[in-house]
Amino acid sequence: MIRLEHLPRAIRESAADRPAPRRWKERLDDARREAIDAAFTATSGRRAEAAKLLGISRQSLLYEMKKLGIR
After folding, report:
1. Measured between alpha carbons, how far is 32 from 70 in angstroms, rounded to an integer?
2. 43-63 pLDDT, tens digit each
3. Cα torsion at 33, 34, 38, 44 (round to 10°)?
């Protein structure tokens, strides 16, 4: 059996610094926020183009923004 003490120091330390697990919904919301932010960055803030880039309708984008508190 491989235990933590058998691993190199760099791996042991990174495992100890890992943040506590978060709830599934929080992770999904964070991923949605990041995707929306990236789409806005890529389209210079144009909502219709950002929605198209994300593969969703403009209305769906607005719904997600409202749900996630994005202005």
Report:
1. 11
2. 999 999 999 999 999 999 999
3. 30
